[in-house]
Amino acid sequence: MIVVTGATGQLGSQIVERLLDRLPPDAVGVSVRDVDRAAGLAERGVRVRAADFTDPATLGHAFEGADKVLVVSAAIRGSGAIAANHAAIDAARDAGANRILYTSHQAASRDSLFAAQPTHAATEEHLAGLGVAFTALRNGFYASTLSFSIGTALETGQLVAPADGPVSWTAHADLAEAAAVALTEDGVLDGVTAPLTASEMLDLENVVPHERVSTRRDIAGKRSASTETST
Ligand SMILES: NC(=O)c1ccc[n+]([C@@H]2O[C@H](COP(=O)([O-])OP(=O)(O)OC[C@H]3O[C@@H](n4cnc5c(N)ncnc54)[C@H](OP(=O)(O)O)[C@@H]3O)[C@@H](O)[C@H]2O)c1
Questions:
Q1: What is an example of a Pfam family matching this protein (predicted)?
Q2: Ligand 1, closest atom to CA 139?
């Protein structure tokens, strides 16, 4: 059985769908915090069990009988994130999984100033030290988070952002497909993967025109955009 955590989240839910394209439902299990939110999966024959990374005693039951466990990094900020990820990974090992997978990040680094990245780096190191086959999926920056960077530009016509560089903004759907391949095709993605990203890199000035806003340079370090009338 393959068990996926975070299956009521945006990425985890898409990964489960891509697994169900490939496997019978009784070969798939999910670990979720709220089983009611996964009732649809249970009706389809997926094993649904409750667990919370911050309550490690719950994890053994959720991972019981798993050959592979995919730990989707929990949406936990701050100092508890590393302990939570480690608890999930350790529980997967204790359950006897012969491969443990983890959704890391393309920018995982102990030295990063972006708070999530030292967490991913520490989790990768923990995973690599377990002595179990592993895959750290170095997922690209989510394209869905672009809305935070763009802010209200589409309404105001003004895009103001600090100096930025090109980013290979990546769709959840593509990352879900990659995770499903890693879970079902042995050896294709082993260890710390190459960055799993979109093939094109765009900075905000390239992204915003796709949303029918034209851009122009403003003062140094800032950029502004004015909305074009869409036809
Ligand atoms: N690559 C990137 O650019 C990027 C950007 C943002 C985040 N991320 C990481 O990618 C992960 C998945 O992204 P997403 O878009 O699927 O986010 P999401 O929809 O917010 O899903 C996060 C998942 O974490 C689960 N979770 C939160 N606290 C937990 C806990 N204590 N124990 C177990 N599970 C817990 C949530 O469970 P519930 O469904 O019960 O709430 C949810 O399923 C995020 O959690 C974050 O670590 C990556």
A1: NAD_binding_10
A2: 1
The verdict on residue 48 lying in a domain is yes
Query: Is ligand 1 within 6 A of the CB of residue 18?
Result: no
The answer to whether position 98 is within a domain reads yes
Domain total in the chain:
1
Q: Are 221 and 162 in contact (CB under 8 A)?
A: yes
**CA pair distance 87, 220, nearest whole angstrom:** 45
Structure token pair of residue 39: 């009732």
pLDDT tens digits along 47-60: 999 999 999 999 99
Q: How many A from CA of 9 to the centre of ligand 1?
A: 6
| Tens-digit pLDDT profile for residues 101-146 | 999 999 999 999 988 999 999 999 999 999 999 999 999 999 998 8
SS3 155: helix
CATH number for the domain spanning 93: value is: 3.40.50.720
d(CA 161, CA 163): 6
Q: How far apart are the first and last CA of the chain?
A: 51
Please tell me whether residue 42 adopts helix, strand or coil conformation. helix
pLDDT tens figures, 22-42 = 999 999 999 999 999 999 999
Ligand 1: atom nearest CA of 74 is 24
Query: pTM of whole model > 0.85?
Result: yes
